[in-house]
Design a protein that fits this description.
Elements: E1 37-39, E2 43-48, H1 50-63, E3 67-72, H2 97-107, E4 112-118, H3 132-138, E5 144-149, E6 162-165, E7 169-173, E8 205-206, E9 208-213, H4 217-230, E10 252-253, E11 259-265, E12 276-277, H5 278-289, E13 293-297, H6 304-314, E14 323-327, H7 335-359, E15 362-371, E16 377-379, E17 381-382, E18 386-389, E19 393-397, H8 403-407, E20 411-417, H9 424-441, H10 446-454, H11 458-468, E21 473-475, H12 481-484, H13 507-512, H14 516-533
Parallel strand pairs: 3-4, 4-5, 8-17, 13-14, 14-15
Antiparallel strand pairs: 1-11, 2-9, 2-10, 3-6, 6-7, 7-9, 11-12, 11-20, 13-18, 15-16, 15-21, 18-19, 19-20
Helix pairs in contact: 5-6, 6-7
């Protein structure tokens, strides 16, 4: 855990178990196990797709007085925040990220901007904007500071996405501010507005972010302070600014009441940091508590821990039948991801489908697509990280359902939990879930949405829509790049799954540094073997098709 003076203040608030309330909702949130801090918000909202997020980010930047801090997996200096009809709001002013931040610093001598980016793997060098350290630091105002953070464990990534403005407004979720991410909720097959700075337009893209104000911003500010110091940037203190003009237009209101903050950090030796796996516990506990349904939309699914939790819940004989629904991209974007993660994903999902069939639970995996002019399907790339359980629990964040995101990379999720079915929190969660499902399915109107609202036969409803193929929803093909090309099939890996849960840089390597060349070389060979193949494990007895997958989860080199 990151520590600096005063960090011990960030003890999570008591859970509902201390409030003495008896409800019919199983408590999922557990202080110290699956969340780090729990605080009230003055206002909170959900921003669906980058049009809504970038517009609200632009407005927050324009109102900033003292500080803007941003950290993420990737940034691009020239991303256009306002497009199409939204451009009128700028009145001809600057709308590109870095020039806008620079202009704000030049216009306001009290404003300081801090940007912290993951010091990415060289595997991604051709996909990143070059010379960013020089571009951000030497072509802008001196009060705009940019740093690369290389403090993650070996082969891990810093994947938390966070913006805090003046210590009073925060954004976090699945979205970075970078190229090839902008889209609106219509997700047409083709859109010129997706063309950014002269680039070719990318395809449909879906993501989810949250925005909030109030006491919950403070721990998020302190998280950035700790990350900045941990990266070598020194001490900064983000004191909140007294403001009465902090407003935003969310796609939908977030649930009222307290929000829980959960994290993932991998263990490092230098600088010293113990592992934190709160999000792993959060997902597992939420699945275990599910009584009616589980809805997940995510960029990947390769987490052995989540697979095991779903199997355990479905095989529990004295529990009710579940409806489990996943919305995923048709396949990972890059070939390296299709090999590294796609094979594990397809094998796990096929095995879950078999378990659900054996045990009588509903289970379905979907994609979402628009029709091109030639009649072909153009699939929306799902990048969001959302889970809803029984309309009484919601989590939104940066963590994918992969091993590395739950055990190795740095991740950040926000969660809400109802106290009783049908209370204000539960109704807000239901509105968010139904709205997301309707977006993916292309459903509209009271009668079409009623089965989604009631939540009783959602899988049957969505299956029917997907099989008809008249709207947006499609059955997920559950195929790998090796299935698509018979020539590749003999090359399909059995154990070559680059999705570790634990850090490759552990005590064995630290000790080897003191044992001479022979010890270091031998340890290096062992570590390379672990990195490529992963630790040995046994496939569950009910499925012979499962690979040997290390413990648990994304971010990093495997995510765009």
């Amino acid at each position: 855990m990151f520590r600096r003076p005063g960090a011990d203040r960030l003890i999570p608030l008591p859970g509902r178990e201390s409030q003495g309330q008896v409800t019919s909702v199983t408590n999922i949130l557990s202080a110290g196990r699956n969340y780090w801090a729990r605080s009230e918000t003055h206002d909170a909202g959900v921003l669906v797709d980058a049009r809504d997020y970038y517009r609200e980010l632009y407005r927050a930047i324009r109102k900033a007085r003292r500080s803007i801090v941003i950290m993420g997996w990737q940034f691009d200096s020239d991303v256009t925040l306002l497009r199409g009809d939204d451009l009128a709001e700028a009145e001809g002013g600057e709308v590109r990220l870095l020039p806008l931040l620079d202009q704000m610093c030049r216009d306001n001598p009290e404003l300081h901007v801090y940007i912290l980016a993951w010091d990415f793997s060289m595997l991604l060098a051709m996909e990143r904007e070059w010379m960013q350290h020089l571009l951000f630091n030497w072509t802008t105002n001196e009060r705009l500071r940019f740093r690369f953070d290389s403090s993650s464990p070996l082969y891990a990534a810093h994947h938390q996405k966070l913006v805090v403005v003046d210590g009073v407004q925060a954004f976090t979720g699945g979205m970075d501010v970078c190229d090839c991410r902008w889209d609106d909720r219509d997700h047409p097959a083709r859109s010129k507005l997706r063309c950014d700075s002269g680039r070719d337009p990318h395809g449909p893209y879906h993501d989810v972010q949250t925005v909030l104000t109030g006491p919950a911003v403070k721990p998020l500010s302190e998280l950035f302070e700790a990350r900045w110091a941990h990266s070598g940037g020194g001490e900064i203190h983000l004191e909140p600014v007294a403001r009465d003009d902090v407003t935003f237009e969310a796609t939908m209101p977030a649930p009222p009441g307290p929000v829980a903050i959960s994290r993932t950090f991998g263990k490092t030796i230098l600088p010293p940091q113990e592992e934190v796996q709160e999000i792993r516990a959060l997902y597992v506990d939420a699945i275990a508590a599910a009584e009616r349904f589980i809805y997940i939309e995510n960029q990947y699914f390769s987490s052995r821990a989540i697979y095991d939790a779903l199997v355990k819940r479905m095989r529990t004989a004295d529990r009710g039948r579940l409806q489990v629904m996943l919305v995923l991209p048709r396949q990972p974007e890059a070939l390296r991801e299709q090999i590294a993660m796609g094979v594990a994903q397809v094998r796990l999902l096929r095995a879950l489908r078999e378990v659900a069939s054996e045990t009588g639970h509903g289970f379905a995996v979907y994609g979402s697509a628009a029709k091109a002019d030639d009649g072909s399907d153009v699939f929306t790339y799902i990048h969001s990280k959302v889970m809803v359980v029984d309309d009484t629990f919601l989590t939104v964040g940066s963590a994918n359902t992969t091993n590395r995101s739950l055990g190795l990379d740095s991740e950040l999720n926000l969660s809400w939990e109802a106290q009783a079915p049908g209370d204000a929190v539960s109704k807000a969660i239901r509105r968010i879930r139904v709205s997301l499902m309707a977006e993916h399915a292309g459903l509209a109107g009271v009668s079409a949405l009623r089965p989604l609202v009631e939540g009783k036969h959602v899988v049957e409803t969505l299956d029917r829509v997907a099989q008809e193929g008249l709207l947006r929803l499609r059955p997920h093909p559950l195929e790998t790049v090796f299935d698509q090309n018979p020539l590749f099939k003999p090359l399909e890996p059995e154990d070559f799954l680059i999705d570790p849960e634990e850090s490759v840089l552990d005590e064995s390597l630290f000790e080897a540094l003191h044992k001479g060349d022979d010890g270091l070389f031998a340890s290096g060979v062992r570590l390379l073997s672990r990195w490529l193949v992963g630790p040995s494990c046994d496939a569950p007895p009910h499925s012979a098709i499962l690979p040997c997958v290390p413990g648990q989860e994304e971010g990093g080199a495997a995510e765009p």
